[in-house]
Amino acid sequence: MLWRSPQGLVSLILTGRRARILALKLKRIPQKEDNAPPAVHQFIQDEYWRASAIAYASQPKGTKHEGWGAPGLVYGEIYFRREILDTVSVIDAHARFVVPRLPTLRPHVRMMQHLRPLAALFTPDGLSWLRTYDSIVQLARYSSREVTETEFELGMQAYQELLEILTEYRDDQSAHRHH
Known about the structure:
The structure is a single chain. By secondary structure, the protein is mostly helical. Helices cover 64% and strands 0% of the residues. It has six helices and no strands. The chain has helices at residues 6-27, 38-58, 80-98, 111-114, 124-142, 149-177. Helix 3 crosses helix 5, helix 3 (80-98) packs parallel to helix 6 (149-177) and helix 5 packs across helix 6 (149-177). The longest helix has 29 residues, at 149-177. The radius of gyration is 29 Å and the shape is flat.
């Protein structure tokens, strides 16, 4: 019962006054075509159509921007550099399941160096995927040119392969702990 205390009563009165003031202000805003003069309504409609036409004309149509997926295709609207760099923390998190005392990931350390404690777990193919992933991450971090679609695909394939390897080891470790 809010109104039984003096603070509650004041709060209730202020809330009621604010609601009434807001309702009065909202009544002044034209909500239908009849509520505004025809010239004002026509002006608003013309400006709306003009803004819509400008927004439509400014959208890229069938063009390919370097470092981005082409609109309407497989990688549409994906910024390759950001997507590759976002995978680094995921790989680091999966690696920590395998080696919980893995050193903290530092921003400028290569992935090969960061995952060095896991090197013994990788097969030659796994090491090859790690080298590929490391190269693509370095390219995304430091290159002045944008990552190409081919490099992006290769980097994402290496990322998926590394995830599979790390997930297998994590699952093997959890299976051994439960026995």
